[in-house]
Design a protein that fits this description.
By secondary structure, this protein is of the alpha/beta class. It has nine helices and five strands; from the N terminus they run E-H-E-H-E-H-E-H-E-H-H-H-H-H.
Length: 209
């Protein structure tokens, strides 16, 4: 059966769309939702595999929804990949994420990607932060580290870099590229279960010259 990736910068949008989609072919009895707000490992994927082994009770399909699937550890994503390679015919799997690029490419290649717009993308406060990053005080950065959405930060970085390239702002582009390099370095630590607040603090307090 087909597997899907529902992608949107807005968490509420991707959750709403995934639940609405699954209701077409699965009742609440045959829908299993897994929350990965914190890093989730292989044990969760094994539980998913167990659910998929049973036939739906009163629906056409058993639906598995894995919320914020980008939080899955790399070993867990590899385990999930094996399921996606040969999913049971009586099932469908929906992975929600802010950005498909945060998942293994092999997972993305086995899913149908559905992108949903977010109402507040154009007014993203992170864009404003990037425009005046060097002027942000230490106190403000401390507050930001408490609530920084790293996925949204990465997306905002990409948009800001594109804007600098179009504008021909070489100095601004150099600063953003340094910040991007630091961000990617920190993101690599996510597979080691580093606390997200610590990751955010490392990104925000890195000196950009």
């Amino acid at each position: 059966m087909q597997s899907y990736i529902f992608a949107s910068l807005d968490q509420k949008t991707r959750e709403k769309e995934s639940k609405a989609f699954c209701r077409v072919s699965s009742s609440s009895y045959d829908t299993y939702i897994y929350d990965t707000s914190e890093e989730a490992g292989i044990e969760m994927v094994r539980e998913v595999q167990t659910k998929l082994a049973t036939l739906p009770l009163n629906s056409a399909l058993t639906t598995i929804i894995i919320k914020d699937s980008h939080n899955l550890t790399i070993p867990a994503q590899n385990a999930l990949l094996k399921i996606l390679e040969e999913p049971p015919l009586s099932s469908q799997i929906i992975l929600t994420t802010s950005n498909p690029e945060l998942l293994l490419p092999t997972i993305v290649s086995r899913c149908l990607v559905k992108n949903f717009a977010s109402d507040n993308v154009s007014s993203d406060s992170y864009q404003k932060l990037l425009e005046s990053f060097e002027q942000v005080s230490v106190e403000e950065k401390i507050k930001l580290a408490e609530s920084l959405d790293i996925d949204r930060w990465v997306t905002s970085l990409r948009a800001a870099i594109s804007a600098k390239v179009i504008a021909g702002d070489e100095q601004g582009l150099r600063k953003l590229l340094v910040l991007t390099k630091r961000t990617l370095k920190i993101l690599k630590l996510s597979s080691y279960h580093i606390n997200k607040k610590i990751m955010a603090a490392n990104i925000l307090f890195e000196h950009v010259s």
